[in-house]
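Hi all, posting the design record for the shared folder.

TITLE: backbone redesign
STEP: 1 of 1
STRUCTURE INPUT:
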């Protein structure tokens, strides 16, 4: 394998498993699950093991990474707020339910605005 292919494969491994972990932890944050620092570290450990197995070429793990890549792509815009929330959860920042509901409402509003916004710029008006 060339050096560039190896680098791209490594980037895919790190990105997929990191995003999967952060999105999973974001779901835990949204649900209000709380854990001490060592419990969060233990929860992150299986993802690190899967990433190592994937790097070594374990077939079922590689298939799981491909499926996870598709799943992450399918959730679209939600992957970013969930990943950010996952980072907050890993850092131990778990707000009360009211704050999470307000944040969810803000995210839904912004997503709705982006959904309703035109995807192409409007043509310039006026006569030349």
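Okay, here is what came back for every position:
SEQUENCE:
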């Amino acid at each position: 394998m060339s050096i560039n292919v190896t680098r791209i494969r490594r980037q895919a491994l790190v990105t997929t498993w990191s995003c999967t972990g952060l999105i999973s932890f974001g779901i835990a944050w949204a649900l209000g699950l709380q854990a001490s620092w060592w419990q969060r570290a233990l929860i992150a450990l299986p993802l690190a093991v899967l990433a190592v197995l994937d790097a070594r070429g374990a077939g079922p793990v590689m298939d799981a990474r491909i499926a996870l890549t598709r799943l992450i792509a399918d959730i679209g815009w939600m992957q970013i707020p969930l990943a950010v929330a996952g980072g907050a959860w890993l850092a131990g920042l778990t707000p009360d339910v009211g704050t999470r509901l307000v944040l969810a409402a803000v995210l839904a509003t912004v997503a709705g605005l982006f959904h309703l916004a035109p995807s192409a710029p409007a043509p310039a008006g006026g006569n030349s």
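COMMENT: DSSP finds five helices and no strands in the chain.
Let me know if anyone wants the other runs.
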